[in-house]
Amino acid sequence: MKTLAVFRFNEFRNYIICRFFFILVMNMQATLISWEVYDMTKDPFSIGLIGLFEFVPAMLMSLFSGQFIDKNDKKYVLQWSILMNILLSVGLLVATLPYTSAALGKSTTLIVIYTVVFFTGIARAFSGPASFAMVSQLIPEEHLNDAVTWNSASWQIAVVMGPTFAGLMYGHFGITPTFCWIIGLFLISFVAILFVGPKPAAYVELKETIFESIKQGFQFVWRTKEILGTLTLDLFAVFFGGATAMLPYYADVVLKVGPAGLGLLRSVPAIGSLVVLLIITLRPLKKQQGKTMLWCVAGFGVSIIVFGLSQIFWLSVVALFASGVLDGISMIIRSNILQLKTPDAMRGRVASLNSIFVMSSNELGEFESGFTSKLMGVVPAVIFGGCMTVLIVAATWIKNPAIKKIKY
């Protein structure tokens, strides 16, 4: 199969192993943290604060990280960010030990968890853009499309497995053994990246200040309407339509399925995305990618509305699966646009700006979910978010016709 040809390249194989285990454990850890915080507080707003504590440092550091990545070895940036995440996971392990949490008390333990999440946001500001910027340096250009697809597929598989493993292990063994597994899997990711060679900067402009470099990144994205349009659409759609933050509440109060059910609920959207990724790997999208993306984002909003209204576990699973399928298609289109439209010298800065959009939609979206849940209740807040997503797509269709014309 032609699409498997990318795995002939040793560095790409090692990169995929590194990325897979890194995303796997980050999703395991996110599932554990969200359930532990909710279990301690029984307050949906406290879950939303997790997103806020991760978003603020990640956004601020992303303004600097893109310029730093473009001027330094991308492999070493990714390597050190993984090491930082390992140390932070050790901190969470210690903080959530029964003896430690009992000695610290609920309030102090929450502060420790939020602090670790804060520093995780700093590390994420470097790991995501560095990972994105490396892909084009691992394989010849003619294999880039296939590499992007497999890169997305490995991400989705990890997102599927992470919450499921975390939920099952938490339910059967408790939080401490699960964190031990997380640290062990983190080490696999760290070792894998060691077998990737240096990936130096495409250029070094010694006279360019950091502010000038950041400005160039913003100007490039602003001028490239395909990139700007897709990033903006994703930002607002996921910001309002993401229901992930409130899944602990649904698992506990609405559906009554506990931590194991929470793991499944968090995994189902990624399962849907993985299925569609495998299909598109065999039958790539060849026309009307822009219109396809808009329809998929609108469908994503509808599936979130259905999930918000559902009080039946299997119907909730189906709605989340559909949201994953539709989001998976739009994600592939976005990824290809970013990789194909961005020159090597700008990859770090564009990736960092992309991470700001992604974090704004995901982490800040979690805070928005917690905040609106506090104001109007959890179920109305989720339904409201789905409706806003559909309205945003309608407005984009009318006001920004260039997105409908996107092809690659």
Primary descriptors:
0% strand; 408 residues; 82% helix; globular; mainly alpha
Write the H/E string, N to C.
HHHHHHHHHHHHHHH
Biggest sheet descriptor: none
Strand content: under 5%
Task: Tell the overall outline.
Answer: globular
Q: Ends: how far apart?
A: 22 Å
> What is the overall pLDDT average?
81
Main structural class: mainly alpha
Q: How many H/I helical runs? A: 15
Helical content band: over 70%
Give a count of the beta strands, DSSP E runs of length 2 or more. Answer: 0
Low-confidence spans? none
Radius of gyration over alpha carbons? 20 Å
Q: If you had to describe this structure to a student in words, what would you say it looks like?
A:
There is one protein chain. The protein is an all-alpha fold and 408 residues long. It has 15 helices and no strands. Helix 12 packs antiparallel against helix 15. The protein is globular and about 55 Å long.
Outline of this structure?
This protein has 408 residues and is mainly α. The chain has 15 helices and no strands. The chain has helices spanning 10-41, 44-70, 74-95, 98-104, 106-134, 144-173, 175-194, 210-223, 225-241, 247-254, 258-282, 289-309, 313-341, 347-376, 378-399.
Give the topology, please.
Blueprint: H1 10-41, H2 44-70, H3 74-95, H4 98-104, H5 106-134, H6 144-173, H7 175-194, H8 210-223, H9 225-241, H10 247-254, H11 258-282, H12 289-309, H13 313-341, H14 347-376, H15 378-399
